Amino acid sequence: MSCALLLLLMSWALAMRTGAAVEIQRPRGVPLSKRQFYEENKPFTCLDGFSTISFDRVNDDYCDCRDGSDEPGTAACPNGSFHCTNAGFRPAFIPSSRINDGICDCCDTTDEYNSGATCQNTCREMGRKERESLQIMAEITKEGFMLKQQLIHEAKRGQEDKQGKLTELQGSKKDLEEKVEALRTVKETAEDPEKEAKERHLKAWGEQKELIRMEKDKTRMAEAFLELDDDADGYVSVAELQSHLELDPDSDGSLTETETQGLLGGADKVDTSTFETVWSGIKDKYLSEGQSDPPAPVETPQEEETRDFVSDHYPEDYAGEEEDVEEDEEDDDHEEEEEEEKVPPTVQTPEKRADDEVSMPPYDTETQSLIDAAQKARDDFDEVERALREVDDQMKNLEKEIGFDFGPSAEFAYLYSQCYELSTSEYIYRLCPFNRVSQKPKFGGSETNLGLWGQWAGPEDSLYSVMKYDHGQGCWQGPNRSTTVKLTCGKETVVTSTSEPSRCEYLMEFTTPAVCQEPASLDEVLQGHTEL
Amino acid sequence: MMGPLLVLWLAVCLSGTWAVDRGNFKTCDQSAFCKRQRALKPGQSPYRALLETLELTNTKLTLQLINDNNKVRLLLELYRLQGNMTRVKINELKPLKPRFEVPDVLINDPPTEPLSLLSQDENGVVLSLGADSQRLIVSAKPFRLDIMEGREVLLSLNSRGLLAFEHLRIRKDTKVDPEGTENKEENEAANEPAEGEEKAKEDEKVEDGMWEETFKSHTDSKPNGPSSISLDFSLPGVENVYGIPEHADSLKLKTTDGGDPYRLFNLDVFQYEVFNPMALYGAIPVMLSHSAQRTMGIFWLNAAETWVDISSNTAGKTVFGQMLDYVQGSSETPQTDVRWISESGIIDVFIMLGPTPTDVFSQYASLTGTQAFPPLSALAYHQCRWNYNDQEDVAAVDQGFDDHDIPYDFIWLDIEHTDGKRYFTWDPHKFPQPKDMLQGLLDKRRKMVTIVDPHIKVDSSYKIHNEIRSKGFYVKSKDGGDYEGWCWPGNSGYPDFTNPEMRAWWASMFAYDQYEGSMENMYTWNDMNEPSVFNGPEVTMHKDALHGNWENRDLHNLYGFYVQRATAEGLIERSGGVERPFVLARAFFAGSQRYGAVWTGDNAAEWDHLKISIPMCLSLGLVGVSFCGADVGGFFKSPSTELLVRWYQTGAYQPFFRAHAHLDTPRREPWLFGPENTALIREAVRQRYALLPYWYQLFYHAHHSGQPVMRPLWVEYPQDTATFSMDDQFLLGRDLLVHPVTEEGARGLTAYLPGKGEVWFDVHTFQKHNGAQNLYIPVTISSIPVFQRGGSIIPRKARVRRSSSCMEHDPYTLFVALSPKRFAQGELYIDDGHTFNFDKHKQFIHRRLFFANNALSSRNLAPGSQFTTFSWIEKIVILGASKPSKATLKTPDGKESLLEFDFDASMSVLTLRKPGVNAGVDWTVVLQ
């Protein structure tokens, strides 16, 4: 675009120099380039060659030619066009329907020659303004293009760096993979003896524990015997045992004689040695006479109370919050705040720690050294494996970045992982190229996703002039939000405007040197514009 | 503040579906008076005429009626009106308090003609209705009225005994009602689970809903108790009835047996469905009956909630059944029976006796006036959207039309342009310089419409609200305070537009110095004037709200009419009475045609909604409202490109041509769908612009004589039974037949070309087709099948420019379509396009163009008028012509000149080149 503008600027300058602003006689509305087709007093052949008419029918305010070419200076043909010379500015074609419609279209006023409209010739002023802006544009384009070259250079270097890095990473990945394998073997080798030694130790400890347990049981039995043997005759009798209702086999609340006898293995009384067999049958139920109260029940009521709290209070609070959300203007799809997981506190059932539990004795030095060796092998392995994962991640990111379409010369690469903001009266808009666009209210409220990077979406001849971000946050009853970013040439990389032309379809204007086109050389201008 | 409310309201209303929520609106069964009345079945009428009370004066006959069940007396007044109409008025002889009689709808007290008594005996009286041996027979016991012509009964009233008049009464709990009216009703009500009591007590004759009625969460206190009225009409020989808009239904009305009656009650129906009798935004209680022999009309002048039942003795029969009747000779005469039920007011019926459709239109126009003659530009294309966001957006859209070379005249601003939905204001950020914006449009000879709705934000810092409140102009609630309801601005008041002082004040608010930022190229849109009350019963005003002494119940359907009237008067006043106003309204009533345009409300982007736009506007045209259109593209939802293109093509040939879209839909300016579709839309709009001279002329006629602009075929071919239920094609005036493509993916369609011995010319190809045939037309996406009647002359302006104003001085092309007898005629109407000078100062040109004996002439139709135009005759295209040897133009100065011409033998089209004569003078072209 800027190229074309510059071209026009040059052609104007040329025109001034060669004095081409002098009007050359030709029918009204005919461009200089077509003058030869309108020869005075010779029959005129419509430019489509379809018919020939006498010359006085050219511009006679009646449309004779199918293609409208006989009425370049009147509104008679529906498909005609009128050429304004616009001396001082640039020439233009306007549809014939704008001739004498009372509206000044040509800056040289030539389109309104018979409508009564009072038009001012504004060509010089417009030319001056355009020249100024063209100059500014040209400068911007020039500088922008230089910046762009730099960007391309940097991108190239960046790309090379990344490629190098990738190769490097690939190398270290290979090394790491080998290392991982080697360390895995070391680890596994070290873990086998460790496992064996540990098992051995555990087994020994288990046996020891059993001995202790049996010892304890014996003691308890002896204590029980003494406790039961009320008359201290060295025998536990039916009567003596009958007071222990907890032992009732059918749990009917009474311990009968027969039942008690059964417990004693059919005997009326037993001595210490026979009690051993009886003990094994009753020890689980037996309650020492010193602690006959059953243990306090588990604290379930407390748990219920907690549940009550959750069901009674929480929903009300929640409903209130929801209303607040609804009142949030416009942002109807306002993201709900992450609800805190409100789990009822679990009630700790007091764990009955056997106070007589004895802790395991430390490993012997041999086992300990085996364990230490295995632990070291594991640590070494984990470390290398982590390193490998990191390298993998780095490679993936690099590959992703390398794989991005950053333009024909990767001139847009510098935008990657950057973000640019524009602050309006209500919102802060944020463009993170190749990633996402978002909007955040200035005065509180959550961020809205206006679209994730989609693709380049410019027209065929300038694909890289438009970026499309889509699949943003859904709109109420509508599509997901999306943003179109229009890129124009500028020295700075900056978001210049945002708008929402259609509900939930955003438009952002963004300047960057990366889209600046090479300014046309003077030669090309001269060649491309010989008419004047 | 209103944002969240709107969101809440929408969320409630939308709740995920696109169809109307029928539960929000009453069925007859849910409307207590309709249920009571409908429970009354045809039979012997309890009413008897007391012939001894008969009084006949020069202007009317009066007679008392008595209900033999309850002895309540009614007063019947009969008038014979000028122009073949009969007015029947029935009121209580001595009502407890006055009953509402609709004011301001009739343009004057209809002039009467004397009735003469032909005969009288104890059974009744016979009166002469003047010409055509028309008689009015009043039968005494039971009371009924018959209008006869010769030996034929044209129409009977109360022939089915459904006259019912709920007299005003004092509430039961204060006084025992000694009457037995409700005895019958009691029985009907018995199956209601009232209090579970089997036998109602003798003194408890109050039915549910008589003194209070609850619908959903809304309670309607009914301080005046039951007051409904009903009357039946029988139409022997009639199988087709039309009118009573607004319903999204077929042109020919359906019988309502087994379903709900057609309902007339102005409502803001969210996402209405097509093909059902539910009430919509507007109500015009006028029905037309038509048979091959006669067209008549019934105008039920009542502004309360009204239900119309239609039944027919042939409707249920199959074709075979009808054949059998015919063969066996046992066929009874076809007959349509109609029953009107209204909640309050009086019976005031105008029977328009035709006999032709044209006569009925004239008769109705003589009662309620004719279509306002719009500024020419209002007939052009309108670009609307909820919403154009800001001034830059407006400028960009305006430029878009120029960039794509598509003409348009008006760009519209919906509610978002205001400062917080405070009408008559501008959003200071989005529209900081409205005059700059309007000037920008004016520079392009274009215009703008801004919305001004009748709900007023209750906000003590809002001038409009403060003035209305301090002047006491708000509608009052039943408790006497200002009535308030929710609408776009949040809590809102509703000015009492029935109050003439209020209307005068409202009108004054449109003065340029009152409506800040307004200019002469800015016009007005009144939306939501049913009125819409988001939190009201059925989304409208409580019936017990008070307009002065009257309840909303009495005049509900009039509110929108008054809003549009006050606004139109404001626009006239601001120009010192010089400029014609343009006001679009959504709600309307009989007579609304005098104040501007209406549209079919919030339709949807669906093919069925495109189709229904035709019968909806045809129905309105039949009852006086010619300036009708539907939102092009559909308001809700997003149209497919094909639907959008087809809608432009259809809309281009409907009277009010405006694209509109909901806030939440993607943008759809005509150039957003690729160059091919842009070109298709451009072409449709250009066809509209080229045809503007004809549209303008049709509106002049509508204004002048009440003839509809858009007409069903039967209006011009009243004896052609094939046309009676056609509503997928229509006529513009007499001379253009349009059958738009309204089917998705259409490859062809069949158009019916009426008129035996007539011919029709395809306006695009000039191909000639015979009348009285079904013509299959292959169509492509660019096709808009339109035909010009052989025998007509249609003026066009071929130089389509960016707005209609730009085309003012452009020359005309005349399209002369010859009849088989090589004859044609048409008209040309020209004036300044925007002032009342055509009326006040007779500044217009009205010419008759006719082709006969191989000569085409232009003659003055209005010798008293005076106007000069720059326009001239550019080209004359004669369809169905033969090749002349020469063509001579004769002008009044006696000069003769030869015209060059071109003859296309394959199509028989003769094109005369550049006659060049001024469009306002006499001239003749002779072909030899």
From TrEMBL, chain A:
Superkingdom, according to UniProt?
Answer: Eukaryota
InterPro entries assigned to the protein according to its UniProt record, in alphabetical order: EF-hand-dom_pair, EF_Hand_1_Ca_BS, EF_hand_dom, Gtb1-like, Man6P_isomerase_rcpt-bd_dom_sf, MRH_dom, PRKCSH, PRKCSH_N
Q: Name one GO molecular function term.
A: calcium ion binding
Give one GO biological process term.
N-glycan processing
- Signal sequence annotation: 1-15
State the coiled-coil residue ranges: 159-186, 374-401
UniProt domain EF-hand: residue ranges: 216-251
Quote the biased-composition stretches of kind Acidic residues, using this chain's numbering: 318-341
Residue ranges constituting the MRH domain according to the UniProt record: 417-518
User: Keywords assigned by UniProt?
Assistant: Calcium, Coiled coil, Disulfide bond, Endoplasmic reticulum, Metal-binding, Signal
- Recorded protein name is Glucosidase 2 subunit beta
Question: Which classification does the entry list for the species?
Answer: Eukaryota, Metazoa, Chordata, Craniata, Vertebrata
UniProtKB/TrEMBL annotation, chain B:
Residue ranges of every copy of the Glycoside hydrolase family 31 TIM barrel domain listed in the record? 372-698
Similarity comment text for this entry: Belongs to the glycosyl hydrolase 31 family.
GO MF, one annotated term = Glc2Man9GlcNAc2 oligosaccharide glucosidase activity
Q: Which pathway is recorded for this entry? A: Glycan metabolism; N-glycan metabolism
Every copy of the Glycosyl hydrolase family 31 C-terminal domain together lies at 706-794
Compositionally biased tracts (Basic and acidic residues): 176-187, 196-207
Q: Where is this region: Disordered?
A: 176-207
Places the protein is found = Endoplasmic reticulum; Golgi apparatus
Keyword annotations for this protein, in alphabetical order, are: Endoplasmic reticulum, Glycoprotein, Glycosidase, Golgi apparatus, Hydrolase, Signal
The EC number(s) given in the record are 3.2.1.207
UniProt signal peptide: 1-19
The terms describing its cellular component in GO are:
glucosidase II complex; Golgi apparatus
What is one process in the GO biological process aspect for this record? carbohydrate metabolic process
* Keyword set includes Glycoprotein: yes
Protein name (record)? Neutral alpha-glucosidase AB
